[in-house]
């Protein structure tokens, strides 16, 4: 069954049977270079590669399609336009269901991209410059990303819910020359003043020369002459033709900041060719996209999911991708399902936290809408608990849609471990099997590989894949230390994993000091640093605990010096401060003022105990006799009301 133009999209790229999967997987391990070069052959290259892959995980240095030249957007537009000119590329559903949606064909998206690329060039953006995108979920945000790729600028999308200081940190780290933003954002019944956040951030940075502002809410905003201009002004008189910049395979495509267990968020760097090949291939196979399907991923473009599976993967595969501006519960808890019915969505991809939040409203909002168009449903961002898996499978998928639980990370660029819809077996709450080209291994704490079934340990990847992280921007050592030093010769994911008796993988969650709140990654150190900014805080420790809806919640313990403020006042001030410094997603659920923190003799905080208290589970508290100050444990337990 050939769904695409046979010359351009050979179906050999799409795995059609379990036997195909087994064969392709085998081939990808035995001859990875041959495997990936055959997929890469589908694309238009200005110049072909000299070598498919060169790598070492020591430095680390990873180079795919070495010395090849291309422009990623030529592979969306020039390559596909002969067959896709009038096909819808993006369907946009606004926050307010009474307002008009937008349908952009590949032809229209191409013109919009070229026009904006020309506008950016006129405002001084050149190949290699960094451009921050701090925007709502509107088609212009996708156009902005594509226009950056077109001119060879490196985009860094910052989720528009981050605070001004988080934004300033990112601007400074990548020395961004330009910011693309909007006057305001509609999200549910909120109207967020985005431009004001940008203005505040710009007080603390000197790199940005131009700010282009999209009119979205019509809010009155201050425009600084010479620095700020309106989107429409920038587009005035610009041509709809633009000759794409020729990029090297390993030229930077984008930087995306993500939290780790230490320090400030780091800029994960993805490069052009490998990312292009992998997001295309994984999109096509995991979701089993057919030519006339409507695909919808509910993520925000501020996260890697939005990059790889709203914008790049689907568009490179010639898909129709839906972008939704709003939130799942506005104006009613059936909004997602209303949208599925409205556009006859075929593949639906969301996060467990959204499923759990909607589960609370019962099945009535789901049953009100016709979901019969759905063929595949997907999950991403955090481990999906069995209850949510079954609810999603039964009530949304009506028991007959494969549910793809996709495990991957900002650093991996694309989906790594996941069922292929309808091809490989589905097992509740299991990410299951690696995609072709992905070689996961389970290692014990010494780095010994645990082979066979029924084993549990740390998840590593032992061979490069095309869309893997290349470096952390401006700090290669940090990339090496974080991912390539824990276990020699392997990429370490930071996740725990189990291989069950059938050989299926189940992701167990982070084994480092990273908390996953509603599918968003937060570093404990990052939250602690924000808390420590409070003038009364002497020391703090942050841990995650199981949260019914969010997966994990943030629990903070703080030692304070103030005697004239009540604990309640301090707790509230600390919560508000974190919200202000990082953003609402980082606000702790609980703050507990404590007299001390449990410390080992070497002065390390024993987080294991704090995690137990935060989880309200004091069983197996373990040995506390090695603590420097065992007496604080009782105080903390009492303070949490657990005695
Ligand atoms: C971390 C990566 C991948 C895009 C969204 C999050 C967790 C992600 C799953 C899954 C269990 C998952 C991991 C991972 N995670 N997907 N299907 N099952 N855990 O990207 O912000 O880079 O976070 O999210 O812990 O390490 P991210």
Biggest sheet features: 7 strands, mixed
Q: Approximately how much helix is present in the residues?
A: 25-40%
In spatial order, strands of the major sheet run: 5-4-17-16-18-19-20
Helix/strand structural class: alpha/beta
> Over the alpha carbons, how many angstroms does the gyration radius reach?
24 Å
> What is the chains' assembly state?
single chain
The whole-number mean of residue pLDDT values reads: 95
What is the tally of beta strands? Answer: 29
Number of helices: 19
Strand percentage lies at 15-25%
| Spatial separation of the terminal alpha carbons | 65 Å
**Envelope shape:** globular
Q: Any ligands, ions or cofactors bound here, and which? A: 5'-O-[(S)-butoxy(hydroxy)phosphoryl]adenosine
Unreliable stretches (pLDDT < 50, length at least 5) are 1-11
Structure commentary:
With 643 residues, the chain is of the alpha/beta class. The protein contains 19 helices and 29 strands. The strands form 9 sheets. A 7-stranded mixed β-sheet has the order 5-4-17-16-18-19-20, sandwiched between helices. α1 packs across α2 (32-40). It is globular. Bound molecules: 5'-O-[(S)-butoxy(hydroxy)phosphoryl]adenosine. Residues 258, 303-305, 379-383, 405-410, 431, 493-495, 507, 509-510, 516, 519, 521 line the site of 5'-O-[(S)-butoxy(hydroxy)phosphoryl]adenosine. 5'-O-[(S)-butoxy(hydroxy)phosphoryl]adenosine is lined by residues 258, 303-305, 379-383, 405-410, 431, 493-495, 507, 509-510, 516, 519, 521.
Topology, element by element:
Elements: H1 18-30, H2 32-40, E1 51-56, E2 61-66, E3 69-70, H3 81-84, E4 88-93, E5 102-105, H4 106-122, E6 130-134, H5 139-151, E7 154-157, H6 164-174, E8 178-182, E9 185-187, E10 190-192, H7 194-202, E11 210-214, E12 228-230, H8 231-235, E13 247-248, E14 252-258, E15 266-271, H9 272-287, E16 294-297, H10 304-316, E17 320-324, H11 335-343, E18 347-350, H12 352-359, H13 364-367, E19 376-380, H14 386-396, E20 403-406, E21 440-443, E22 455-461, H15 476-484, E23 491-499, E24 505-510, E25 514-517, E26 520-523, H16 524-532, E27 537-547, E28 551-560, H17 567-581, E29 590-593, H18 607-614, H19 631-639
Parallel strand pairs: 4-17, 6-7, 6-8, 8-11, 11-12, 16-17, 16-18, 18-19, 19-20, 28-29
Antiparallel strand pairs: 1-2, 3-13, 4-5, 9-10, 14-15, 21-22, 22-23, 23-24, 25-26, 27-28
This protein binds 5'-O-[(S)-butoxy(hydroxy)phosphoryl]adenosine (WT7).
